[in-house]
Hints:
Layout lengths: L5 H13 L11 H17 L3 H17 L3 H25 L6 H19 L3 H17 L3 H14 L4 H17 L3 H18 L12 H21 L8 H9 L16 H15 L3 H12 L4 H20 L1
Amino acid sequence: MNIATADEFLAQYRAISAKLKKRFMRKPNVAEAVEQFNALANNMKLQNSYPYAALCYLAVARCEAMANCFTAEAEALVQAARNYFGAEVENSRKRSPTFYENCSMAVRCYNAAIKVYCKNDQPALAAFLCLELGKCLQKLNKSVEAIGHYQRAVELQHQNPLDVLTSMDHIASCHVETGDFDSALTVLTEMSYLAKERGGIKHGNISEISGAYKDILARCEVSRVLLLLLLQPTPQRIRPEHANILERYSWESSDESLQVPYLNEDLFLLLQSLVMARQANDIMAVQELQKDLSALLTAEQTHLLHLMIAETSNSKYEL
């Protein structure tokens, strides 16, 4: 049945809720209430009334909690959170004034579901929700708020290094989005250390590292080079490990310990040329290299390259 007004929705919501009241010598029919709340929620979603759908899912979660079914309770809380976020996205699309109250409710629902999973010894599912919450916040341009949830995912995933590295990558991306390039560089450096440590390197032999870790090391390497070229830290402020990164791309470098075997040769040579061009403040050479580099970079790395080119142009103008 189509529901045209909020009054009609509330009437049906209250009618279903009334069935959960305890009666003398009669237990409430929780299963029937869950079915009806779900049906009402689906009806609301069809009408894009996401906050009302979320209210129904919260009612479902309470019912499942009464029945001691934690998996169904958590799933209902997640559905409520997704609908609250749906309402916030809809407001953003329509450019409607908002105090982000739906976003706040979504975060509360996600945190409640995470708490349920943690309480029942399901850290992997809890971490998955932390990641989902972080991504939703990023879509709403709330990258600063997303960082804390990604960090929580890292804590929950401590026994799965590849998952930890994925979550850390999200943290680094949030720092890039907010313009905190120093923090992004720090996180990527930590990722590089962790990938080498957990990737099975023995006696410093990088060739023994597994494929997944090699890919992570390659992404970290490229992003760190671009961030260092963008930040241009002075010799007094640059950390030794970051100085070593730039030294790898020096034409004069012959130290085997500075080689980068997890990068393909074309990308290595292009980065080497980029480092030399940036150090020479040669904007024309940097712009020429951009054409070849862009095809080998991720969207985020391409963004960093654009920022670095803009910074190089400004430096050239100032000179």
